[in-house]
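Annex B.
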Amino acid sequence: ARRTMKCKTVQVLWHEKGPVLSVDFNPASGLLASCGTDKEIKLWEVREDADGNPDVKHVDTLTSHTKAANVVRFSPGGDMLASGGDAGEVFVWKPGTSTNLHGDPTTWRTAAVMRGHSDDVQDLAWHPGGAALITGSVESTCIVWDVPKAQGVYRLEGHKSYVQGVCWDPQGEYLVSQSADRTVRLYASRGPPHPLGSQKWRRNMSCQKVLSKAEENADPRAVAAEAAAAGAAGPAGAA
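CAF1B/HIR1 beta-propeller domain-containing protein: predicted structure tokens.
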């Protein structure tokens, strides 16, 4: 049977009419998080109305960022939320009662503030196990964070321009960063497995591969066409 996807544009004054920069769903509860240039994180409950159409209800506004909040990501288990912004800080949020700067009660609280970047945090990603984060910054570096200890355990360098995206592979073995320098860097810890962030893990961590435009494989159709054209024209220098 064919199913029709329903779409509804919800007219809400999100983020004081400023740009919304990132959104993410909680994998456990379905809660939606959004953030933007107004420095706030908003949490939304997404549900169906009486007619079966999608509806959104505002739940919380989290206000610890002092500059634009660029990215929000729920942990794999949905029990934590991480956010990064223009102040270079990374916030980790957990369920718990608190009060925001507007004096409103919230159901999520700041659990940790991690500092290490000197410029905007553009992207972040959780380790599949939920105990670590990687962040990428305008300062051209990435930091791997031990979330329970709320501290950076490794700084990845090598990009020559802004780091615009980061991710872990689903097995948690590889780290990848992308940059405005038009390269993608692939990192891994060589040798036998060691606890994430441990001294041996850090000692063995290195960039395994740098992907750039020059390393793309040529289009086989273009190669064949070029070879055919060369054959039709004859060897170079022929009359």
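Confidence is low (pLDDT under 50) at residues 226-239. The chain has one domain: 20-192. Further annotation is deferred to the next reporting cycle.
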